[in-house]
Amino acid sequence: MSTKKIPQRQCIGCGEMKSKREMIRILKTPEGNFTLDATGRKNGRGAYLCPSAECFHKAVKGKGLDRSFKMAIPKEIYEALEKEMKHLG
Description:
Blueprint lengths: L7 E3 L6 E3 L4 E5 L5 E4 L7 E5 L3 H9 L2 H6 L5 H14 L1
Antiparallel strand pairs: 1-2, 3-4, 3-5
């Protein structure tokens, strides 16, 4: 019997490695829009974040999204993502 491998992802806020299912995926669509991907299956570039406000604020302060997507992220996008996270939590 082989054991199934659990995919691990690193949080852009705290830097901890956790299973992919425990985390929230922030997605940049091919059109350039940013959104939260609850399923983890949508097309586009993704970055992973723990589902806590604390990790979100660390990611904003440490420019984790900017590094993940290799571009400057406007303040409005951070605000929209924060609102989406509150609806999930």
